[in-house]
Each structure stands twice: as structure tokens, then as C-alpha cells.
Amino acid sequence: MQDFITFLQLHWVLSATFVVVIFALLIIEFIKQKQSATQLSPSQLTQMMNHEDAVVVDLRSSILFADGHIIGAQSIPFTELNQKIKKLDKFKSKPIVLVCLTGAEAPRAAITLKDSGFNIHTLAGGMRAWREADLPVVKG
Predict the structure, then answer these.
(1) Is the separation of the CB atoms in 39 and 106 below 8 Å?
(2) Is 90 helix (H, G, I), strand (E, B) or coil?
């Protein structure tokens, strides 16, 4: 213990820098956690749709949406999200689950919607995870 105290006294700048870096990393992680949306598994999404009347927003292109989507999903392509955000205002009191192809675009869209006051979640793995779980899709 005496060696540790001696080290701190001799290298106080290094020690202070270490403490500042650790503190900064903790703040950054806290901010990331606050901004990120909860990721749901396909079974959790199904439960949320059945018990909490969750709204599913499909962020894929119209062509992919028509090829197969979750029952009752709203189609708002990721590229059009900022222009069509008003379309979701009627769902502010409900949980909204964002779905993309692989789960990569949904977290980025979640930040935008979360900043607008929506209760946002994302489907982990996107539609690929939904299909791998053999859950139903609607075509058209």
C-alpha cells in the first residue's frame, strides 16, 4: 500500500489523467445508454404487440416491405423517416418498435424518434431474426 501511495505522489499528473479518462469514459457510456433504445427479441416483440398494443414501424424500402413484413407494421423507409415523422404522432402514447433488415439501421432511427419524445424499441436482428424464428409475415 505504501508503494501505491508513493507512486501516486511521484506521478500525480499521470494518476490525475487516468482518473479523468475513466470519468470521461463513464460519462460517454451513460449518455449512450440513455440515448439507445431497448432491443427486443422476436418473442418479446410478439408479447409487446399482444399485451401493450405496440406499433411496429418497418424501416426497409417499399419493395422489401411488400416482399414480407410483420402483421400490422407501418411502412416508413429509413430514408424518409425525417419527412414522415408526423405520421407517428398519433402513436406517441404507445410503444413503437423499429424494424429494419438486419438490426443495423433501427438504432440510428431510434435516436431521432427518442429525441422527439417517442417510446422506442428495436427488433434485435431485424426481419432476418423474425424470419429465422419462423414467425408469420404478410406479403403485399
Answers:
(1) no
(2) helix
